[in-house]
Amino acid sequence: MLTKRIIPCIDVDLDEDGNPAVYTGVHFEDLEYTGDPVEMAKAYNESGADEFVFLDITASAEGRETMLDVVRDVADEVFIPLTVGGGIRTTEDIKETLRAGADKVSITTGALERPELINEGARAFGSQCIVISVDARRRFDEGGEHYVEIDGESCWFECTKKGGREGTGIDVLEWAREAESRGAGELFVNSIDKDGTKDGYDLPLTEAVCDAVDTPVIASSGCGGPEHMHEVFTEADADAGLAASIFHFDEHSIAEVKEYLDERDVPVRL
Amino acid sequence: MSTVSASDSSEQALASVVVVDYGLGNLRSVTRGLERAGADVEITDDPEAFADADGVVLPGVGAFREGVENADPLREDLLEIADSGTPLFGICLGMQMLLTTSEEGDNDGESAVQGLDLVPGTNVRFADGQKVPHMGWNELDVRRDHPLVEGVDGRYAYFVHSYYAVPDDADATVATTDYEREFPSIVANEAGNVFGTQFHPEKSGETGLQILRNFVEICSQE
């Protein structure tokens, strides 16, 4: 039986000396230093991580080069899937990221601005390596196409760019379907409202996306502990749960999360 | 022709293995995984290197048609390798290419794309309504003996695929996996020297490394 995946997310930034460093933030801001990406990846692998997501949060040429070095180093040490995101805008970017040892690329803004990138990437490298990432924001106004009820209010989800700083007016569910039809092999669903809060994933958002598409969905943002992973797998039917800070700050180990899920009959790789 | 040596000379290699470079994708992980398993690895598209190797790996990500077309110049060389008894190991799309054809290559009303036909059969798509691709860690159920599967029964491997192999001969199935249906996750030809995994051993953690070690062991006996 296919297991639910537990994925630590590692945001790679540059420290003052230009070396790769991991920082963790709240609401995509207030970043705090948490460690060396390669060492973290090795430790998470030991603890039973099913996969990694690395995000280059510098969005700079230097950051990109550093990220590729990190990917090479991790790919040489750790034999589980690596997804790499941040600043990917062309098929050339996809190619060099895969060549460095990534198995998938995660694309956010690059695909919103030029949706054909999804088709091009899927055609050249296969759908399995094209992950479309959305940074969703709850909107309680008239601008959406698909509404869900949250606490008695009608809500839609908007795709944002630049880590939530810029709206697009695009409905997340419409975009998810379009991305799938263009060849995306997986959807990575972040929530601006939940990021860093540790009070649980955006369940209505995750559930709505899972219902809208047939491709696997990675839930992200808001995980504060094993109970939130359990919720997003059993209530929203996500295929994978991603978390950053709870693992980085050693609040919960991956092994502990998996044990919790296994005891509650959620299939995990032990 | 490009030949890149990626060997790690720090240890005595158990076998020399060639990874066929017929296009794009991540060859780094499979190379490092094979090295970790004790092989001396060469990534190449030079058929002469195939003939000298103890074993050949046909990697693969992406679409069947593109894969077959990219590998087409090497078709005769790969068939010769298989015929000579040298181990030939197809991974993911590389495994699907060992079969005769695929529904995937058959799209857009174009004629069927011919695979290598080393393990006769067809690759078919998972049913509508199932989440596709089948992506993630799933269990291996070993059905028959083959040196490749030593020590991996009941363990988990990492899969990413939308099509699965249906060999004509049921005995070609070495292991199966359950994704709303049982499908062959490891196949082998009758002679035993041509085999493939639908999953990625180079991405399947310790279980995957065990399979790569088994492969290197098979090669070392050549």
TrEMBL record, chain A:
It is found in: Cytoplasm. Its EC number is 4.3.2.10. One of its GO terms (biological process) is L-histidine biosynthetic process. The active site is at 11, 135. Pathway: Amino-acid biosynthesis; L-histidine biosynthesis; L-histidine from 5-phospho-alpha-D-ribose 1-diphosphate: step 5/9. One of its GO terms (molecular function) is lyase activity. This is Imidazole glycerol phosphate synthase subunit HisF. It comes from Natronolimnohabitans innermongolicus JCM 12255. The gene is hisF.
From TrEMBL, chain B:
It catalyses: 5-[(5-phospho-1-deoxy-D-ribulos-1-ylimino)methylamino]-1-(5-phospho-beta-D-ribosyl)imidazole-4-carboxamide + L-glutamine = D-erythro-1-(imidazol-4-yl)glycerol 3-phosphate + 5-amino-1-(5-phospho-beta-D-ribosyl)imidazole-4-carboxamide + L-glutamate + H(+); L-glutamine + H2O = L-glutamate + NH4(+). GO terms for cellular component: cytoplasm. Its EC number is 4.3.2.10, 3.5.1.2. NCBIfam families: IMP_synth_hisH. It is found in: Cytoplasm. Heterodimer of HisH and HisF. One of its GO terms (biological process) is L-histidine biosynthetic process. The keyword Transport does not apply. It comes from Natronolimnohabitans innermongolicus JCM 12255. SUPFAM superfamilies: Class I glutamine amidotransferase-like. InterPro entries: Class_I_gatase-like, GATASE, Imidazole-glycPsynth_HisH. IGPS catalyzes the conversion of PRFAR and glutamine to IGP, AICAR and glutamate. The HisH subunit catalyzes the hydrolysis of glutamine to glutamate and ammonia as part of the synthesis of IGP and AICAR. The resulting ammonia molecule is channeled to the active site of HisF. It comes from the Archaea. This is Imidazole glycerol phosphate synthase subunit HisH. Residues 18-216 form the Glutamine amidotransferase domain. The active site is at 92 (nucleophile), 200, 202. Pathway: Amino-acid biosynthesis; L-histidine biosynthesis; L-histidine from 5-phospho-alpha-D-ribose 1-diphosphate: step 5/9. Pfam families: GATase. Keywords: Amino-acid biosynthesis, Cytoplasm, Glutamine amidotransferase, Glycosyltransferase, Histidine biosynthesis, Hydrolase, Lyase, Transferase. GO terms for molecular function: glutaminase activity; imidazoleglycerol-phosphate synthase activity; lyase activity.
